[in-house]
């Protein structure tokens, strides 16, 4: 009995580790979504496309300008974030007074257009992008599994970024302004804070987070125009389960659902794409505001 | 109205519906017009291997056939089935019923191919399938209206799988795309392994489409300790699997068998990651003078890329159809799909893509298959110089013997 249990544990331990690695991506992506929704009340359906752009910009920086991975890790989020500024100023800012649904439709349309443009230019099967040499080489032997160095880096980077974002929003003066502006924008503006600019930069920040996740994903997933859309629906489920707009909620839920998905891949792999939605349905029935949301 | 989860999820659900409409509808047809519908994946995982390139290849075939010089009009339509069988059969029905399409070409993705296979039978139309892989099209699902052109799962299994077993890979673990194609490829390869005295230790099925991370599956493959890990998937799935297998160091103790990989996948992976892989195709641009000439013609329609075997198959199929239709006369060719297919089977094929060939009673197009090895970056002399030819299997041996397929058209 005990032997069997140990065997089961040995079989699933690596899957738990891998689940956490995937959870890191879910956490990073849902973090950006939660920031944008929590602060701007915009449902950013273009998030997947912006994630994809992050990966493609990294590829362009390498192949057109010779800038390696580490440079792309900084530059790509800045470039895609600047694109976010343009989008926010030109389009999204005009919709704040209208119903949420308009923002959703606009960003959804944008996502389709961006993906279509990239598909026309680069095709669908993707572009090669290698991990940096310092993170390649023999995988780390954990005893029960071999874990590539690059995946360890992904988890560490995701944790640091999530923690930093949470600290900025919850513990700094800037974060306090932001949170105040979502409660009562005119009042905050009356105190001399430039609220529209802050909102623009928040959107850009959320977009940059998506792009950062894209750069992190480029060396391990195929860099193709559809890479975001396969993530985005799952990530939306993560945000809904975590509680819309709750930053800590999305991060924790991201890691937790990565884990659940990982274990499903062992127990019943055919269901691994659906398990998150089953959980979402259950959570919505039991706690409509999400696990960490305030009703 | 406030935004709630239902709205978001509604938006998410609407995503696949957009673009389900056929790209173009045709006007009422004249009687001397042949209508060729290219039904393919224009936006998903298989797009680069078929997609717009298949349409360009069919257009080239129209030009090369010279039928327009003989007073026959040819119209080429295209449709995006998004790898969904229901969308595929809806477009096929619409094309046949409303637009008067005479032949449906390509039909990527086995599940879509099987769906359209039933539609053309019901409507007495024609499907010339190039990209769909399942060998069931000339087996249990065969009919008098379908010709399976380029390759199939049996051929892949025997060529790549057979070579792996011969070189000592006698225990296997499969990573399989969970739909008709993956199942057929796993089954056919498993049969080859078992017949040669090997063992299949297990398999894991991943959802299609929508799987990005294969590390869990690769790890299960590692834990199985099988000598060979067979990838019974295709397109972006295979690319992601190979990329991540390299990352996890799977290839240091086990061998990777990519059961379906085409040149656009190799191009996307890059030789650094793809080098040394064995794969099977029935067409490669650099095989001989004829394939080089054809590829140079097709290249401009493909944005500079070399044609894949799927696209070459669309070219070859459309060309043969037009030859037969011109010989029969347009009115007769349009009258009955099954009748035209009988004539197509009677006439030997010959084109720049596959050379001389024939079509068997069960609808199987016959030509040689090739086992290639992907070159290392040092061996490659220029763009698209990717393959070394390892072995050629003659046409008679490349495909499943007719008696073993269980096709009802085969008279014994």
Features:
heterodimer, A: 295 residues, mainly alpha, two-stranded antiparallel ribbon, 1% strand, globular, B: 412 residues, alpha/beta, Rossmann fold, 2 domains, 5-stranded parallel sheet, 4-stranded parallel sheet, 16 helices
A few lines on this structure:
With 295 residues, chain A is an all-alpha fold. Chain A has one domain: ABC transporter involved in vitamin B12 uptake, BtuC.
Secondary structure elements and their pairing?
The complex is a heterodimer of chains A (295) and B (412).
Chain A: H1 2-40, H2 47-65, H3 69-90, H4 100-122, E1 140-141, E2 146-147, H5 149-171, H6 173-183, H7 185-190, H8 195-217, H9 227-242, H10 247-267, H11 275-286
Antiparallel strand pairs in A: 1-2
Helix pairs in contact in A: 1-5, 1-8, 1-9, 1-10, 2-3, 2-4, 2-8, 2-9, 3-8, 5-6, 9-10, 9-11
Chain B: H1 5-14, E1 33-40, H2 51-65, E2 73-80, H3 85-99, E3 103-106, H4 110-123, E4 127-129, E5 146-148, H5 153-166, E6 171-177, H6 180-195, E7 199-206, H7 215-224, E8 228-232, H8 235-247, E9 255-258, H9 263-269, H10 271-274, E10 278-281, H11 289-299, H12 309-328, H13 330-335, H14 337-346, E11 349-351, E12 355-359, E13 365-366, E14 369-374, E15 387-393, H15 395-398, H16 402-405
Parallel strand pairs in B: 1-2, 1-3, 3-4, 4-5, 6-7, 6-8, 8-9
Antiparallel strand pairs in B: 10-14, 11-12, 12-13, 14-15
Helix pairs in contact in B: 2-12, 3-4, 5-6, 8-9
């Amino acid at each position: 009995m005990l032997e069997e249990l140990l065997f089961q544990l040995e079989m699933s331990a690596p899957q738990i580790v891998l689940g956490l690695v995937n959870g890191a991506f879910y956490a990073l992506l849902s973090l950006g979504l939660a920031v944008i929704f929590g602060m701007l009340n915009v449902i950013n359906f273009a998030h997947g496309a912006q994630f994809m752009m992050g990966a493609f910009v990294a590829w362009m920086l390498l192949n057109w300008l010779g800038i390696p991975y580490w440079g792309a890790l900084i530059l790509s989020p800045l470039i895609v974030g600047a694109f976010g500024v343009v989008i926010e100023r030109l389009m999204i800012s005009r919709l704040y007074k209208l119903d949420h649904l308009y923002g959703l439709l606009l960003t959804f349309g944008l996502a389709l257009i961006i993906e279509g443009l990239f598909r026309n230019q680069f095709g669908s099967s993707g572009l090669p992008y290698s991990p940096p040499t310092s993170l390649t080489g023999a995988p780390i032997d954990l005893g029960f599994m071999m874990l590539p160095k690059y995946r360890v880096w992904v988890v560490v980077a995701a944790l640091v970024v999530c923690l930093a974002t949470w600290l900025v929003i919850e513990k700094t003066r800037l974060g306090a302004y932001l949170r105040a502006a979502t409660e009562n924008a005119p009042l905050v503006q009356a105190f001399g804070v430039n609220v529209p600019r802050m909102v623009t930069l928040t959107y850009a920040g959320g977009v940059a987070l998506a792009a950062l996740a894209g750069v992190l994903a480029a060396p391990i997933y195929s860099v193709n125009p559809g890479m975001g859309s396969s993530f985005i629906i799952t990530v939306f489920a993560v945000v809904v389960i975590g509680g819309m707009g709750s930053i800590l909620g999305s991060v924790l839920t991201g890691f937790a659902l990565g884990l659940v998905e990982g274990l499903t891949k062992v127990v019943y792999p055919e269901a691994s794409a659906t398990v998150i939605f089953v959980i979402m349905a259950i959570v919505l029935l039991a706690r409509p505001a999400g696990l960490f949301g305030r009703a | 109205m406030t935004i709630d989860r239902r709205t978001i999820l509604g938006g998410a659900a609407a995503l696949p519906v957009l673009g389900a409409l056929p790209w173009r509808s045709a006007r009422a047809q004249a009687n001397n017009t042949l209508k060729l519908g290219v039904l393919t994946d224009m936006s998903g995982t298989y797009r680069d291997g078929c997609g717009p390139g298949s349409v360009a290849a069919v257009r080239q075939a129209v030009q090369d056939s010279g039928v327009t010089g003989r007073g026959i009009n040819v119209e080429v339509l295209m449709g995006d089935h998004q790898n969904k069988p229901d969308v595929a059969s809806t477009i096929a029905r619409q094309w046949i019923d409303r637009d008067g399409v005479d032949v449906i070409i390509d039909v990527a993705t086995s599940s879509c191919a099987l769906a359209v296979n039933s539609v053309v039978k019901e409507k007495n139309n024609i499907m010339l399938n190039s990209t769909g892989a399942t060998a069931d099209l000339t087996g249990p699902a065969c009919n008098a209206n379908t010709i399976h052109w380029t390759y199939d799962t049996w051929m892949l299994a025997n060529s790549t799988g057979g070579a792996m077993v011969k070189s000592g890979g006698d225990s296997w673990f499969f990573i399989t795309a969970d739909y008709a194609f993956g199942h057929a490829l796993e089954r056919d390869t498993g049969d080859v392994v078992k017949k040669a005295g090997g063992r299949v230790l297990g398999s894991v099925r991943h959802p299609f489409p929508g799987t990005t991370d294969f590390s869990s599956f690769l790890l299960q493959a590692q834990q199985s300790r099988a000598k060979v890990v067979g990838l019974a998937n295709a397109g972006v799935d295979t690319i992601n699997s190979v990329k991540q297998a390299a990352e996890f160091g799977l290839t240091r103790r086990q061998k990777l068998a990519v059961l379906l990989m085409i040149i656009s996948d190799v191009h996307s992976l890059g030789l650094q990651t793809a080098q040394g892989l064995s794969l099977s195709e029935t067409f490669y641009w650099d095989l001989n003078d004829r394939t080089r000439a054809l590829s140079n013609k097709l290249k401009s329609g493909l944005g500079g890329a070399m044609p894949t075997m799927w696209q070459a198959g669309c070219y070859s199929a459309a060309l043969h159809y037009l030859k037969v239709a011109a010989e029969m006369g347009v009115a007769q060719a349009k009258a009955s799909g099954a009748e035209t297919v009988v004539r197509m089977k009677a006439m030997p094929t010959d084109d720049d893509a596959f050379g001389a060939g024939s079509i068997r009673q069960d609808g199987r197009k016959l030509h040689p298959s090739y086992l290639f090895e992907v070159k290392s970056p040092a061996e490659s002399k220029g763009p698209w110089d990717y393959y070394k030819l390892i072995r050629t299997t003659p046409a008679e041996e490349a495909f499943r013997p007719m008696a073993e397929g269980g096709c009802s058209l085969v008279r014994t």
